[in-house]
Structures are given as C-alpha cells and as structure tokens.
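Single-chain item
Fold in token form
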Amino acid sequence: MSRKTVVYKNDLNIVPLRKFTSIEIDLFFSMCNKLKERGTEEINIPFKELKGLSNYQPTATKRFIEDLKRVYDKVLQLTYTEYSGLSFKTFVLFTSYEVNAEDKVLTVSVNPKLKNILNDITGGFTKFELEELTHIKSSYAKNMFRLLKQYKHTGYFKIRMEDFRERLDVPESYRMSNINTSVLTPIINELDPLFSNLHINKIKARKGRKIEWLEFVFDPEQRIQTKKHPEKPQYKSKGKAYRNREKTPEWLEHPNEQLQDEKDLDFEKDRQAFLERLNQDWGE
C-alpha cells in the first residue's frame, strides 16, 4: 500500500478530540485521509480498506461497527466555532455518516460549511503520514504528534499548561505528577523516534511553583525539496536513522509558501532560552 498522508488546515488542531481512544483517533484520521480534496462528495469506504488505513487489529465485524458508532458519537461533539464579536457559529465536521453492516461499507461526507478544512489548502496546514500516527499507542502521544507536525519545520512549540490540558483532553483531576507519568513520559518515549532529539521543558510561573508553560523542542525537518535542491539528510534518534517519507501532493507545492504559524519574531530568543533551561528538574 502506498504511503498515505493526512492534510488539513491548522484550525483542526485547536479542536480537542475529547474522550477519543487511540483506535478512534486512528479511524477518524483515516476518514480524513479519504475525504481530503473530495469537496462535499459522499465517499464510500469499504470496511477492509478502513481497517487497513487505521491499522485496526480486532477482527470481529460487530466490534468494528461499534467502534465506528463511537467515533461518530464523539465527532458530533467535536465542533468548530467561528466568532464575530459576541456572535458565533458552530459546525460539526461530518454531516453524512452511514454504516452499512451488510455491504460492510462506511459512507461519509464533509459539512459544506467546513469543506475548506480538508479541501483547497494552500497554506497554514498540518501534514503527516497516516502510518506513523496509527503505530503510536498512547492517545496523548497521538494528539501531541499531530500538534508537533504543525511545527515540524521550526522544531519548537510552546503552549500554556491550561491549553495543553484542553488540547490533549487531560483529566482535570491530574496533578503534575500524573501528567509526568501518564502524559509526558509516553509522549517522549513514542515520539522521539519521529521527532529527533525531542525534549520537553516546564516553565514555572514567576510567582509560586505552578507550571505555566510547556516547551517542546526537536530537530526541525527540512522542507520538501524540489529538483533544484539537494536531497535532504536523514535524522537520527537513539542510534537509528529516521527518514521522513512524506510526499507532498501536487496541489500543495507552492515554492513561495510562507506559513503564518511558523513566523515567530521571538523564535530564536525562545529557543535559546529553552536550551538554557533543559537541565531544570521536571517536578513541581
């Protein structure tokens, strides 16, 4: 099977995948892979193909149908909101979702009002290889994987602790010790081979011991090369060579592209400050 990529506007990264299990995340982004650049067309996806894309392991059809139902139940709660002053509009991503148990086919389509999330993307997008996502076990690591992919060309991402909790749907009851063990440790263990030299730094508030920010730093990926540029090097992690295998589709190749989210006037200053803090203790 050829390498499959998922591409969507960065807006989707702002929407937390609340209560999604690891399997459900894989199924959701496998659907996004099939729906990209298909407008609002209804897409028929055979169960067999969807299982292959999502690296789905259980074999029972009944279990698979139940998982598909749970995905849509959670997608209905996964809303995108546009604000204009005090006014706002809220949309769900999928407006058509039909599971045919006899023919073993899923039929799904994108909300016409949100078709730009997966279609006609020319800038401000996140792109990753689907197979990499589906081989990550932890749901926290999966969600962090897609967030870091948005910043793969800078190798630096900084986020407030409260935003981190929301984006990764971390339980409110989790103290910093729980976050260290159940969230940050799986992220480091599973994502280091995919983001070379990945480190996480905690920044405390100016007053007190509360963690206010998290910084993620890793070796940035070079941009997709054209025929006029030499081949990009391999990245090494823990003694193993990692080579990014993503292929950019023709509709995303823009030589003069400059991504707004990667323009950060304080980037070098923040990165240097991060490196100076790497030896700090992770505890509160």
User: Anything to note?
Assistant: The CA atoms of residues 5 and 247 lie 8 Å apart. Residues 226-265 have pLDDT under 50 and may be disordered.
